[in-house]
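User: Could you check the structure of this?
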Amino acid sequence: MKKIMLAGILLLCLAMTISGAMAAPGGNFSDSCYSESHIDYGDLSLNLRITHSCNASARYVEWSSVNLTALGDIVDGEVIIGGEWMLVDSIMRPDLDAPATLVWTSSPFAVVPNILDDGTTCSACNVSIVGARLEVQVPGFSNYSLTAKQEFTVYLDEQPELKGKVYQMIDLGNSRRGEEYACIVQIFGRSDATGAWVLVQTNPERKVQARILGNPDVNQPESLGYFPTVKGMANVYFRNDNIVGYSDFQYVAQCSNNATALIYEEPISTRYSPAGRTLVARGVWLTDGVNNESSNAFYVMVWIIGGIFVIWFGGMVVKSFRS
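Assistant: Sure, the predicted structure tokens are below.
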């Protein structure tokens, strides 16, 4: 009898040893976009990472030390990772309400964005961009989302492209009518190689305007190196050169004075047809509205017809000389 009891105790100890050697709970997903990795510290806590790897780039949330023993594996719907947001079902997973790091391996933004906690600006969150990587340190978990900084208004003209430039109007708002600001406009292109945003151009283009008579006008933005505001408003532009080779763009306007710095960012996309991309003399048309697509098609057709006419006219001239 004693031998049987001793054997039972040994089997129980062995079972406990095997159980203790088993991996700690992590994640178990049927959605192939999600995966998990963790480091078991052996004290019921672990370093846990949940990754969403579908779409353009990987995004993940990582906890430095969480205890999943009570509730077990994280399953579909308990951690949801979107393009510019991440959330945890805090009712089902209160154990995940702990400091965490949110990472986008390819940042959706060219400058540091706003981080919202349940729709409200998160003052306790730290945001940084290094190369293509966007990282957000959060104190606990709820519904986090990212938005581009748009601290003033930018209007696009209906026909914005004039002499190789695309024009906009910046309006800093009624509260800033009595202040003077210096504004610049930058265009960032997404690198296909690294996924990082590359500064393609800064406007105004810094140069002194030449005059046939008199001195250069030092009040021109090109001479000042910035667009000055008048009663809180400024006429600005970006150039349509130096952007070939990129397909995704971010428009960034920055206005500052000695007391305040303001940022506006939004994505812009090419609206001209793929056929027009091969035209050597084409104007690259960038706009935020869809109403200009017919106009862009018109300009592409003008270039095509003009090219055909030049070829025909050149052929007629050559033929006349030969005859």
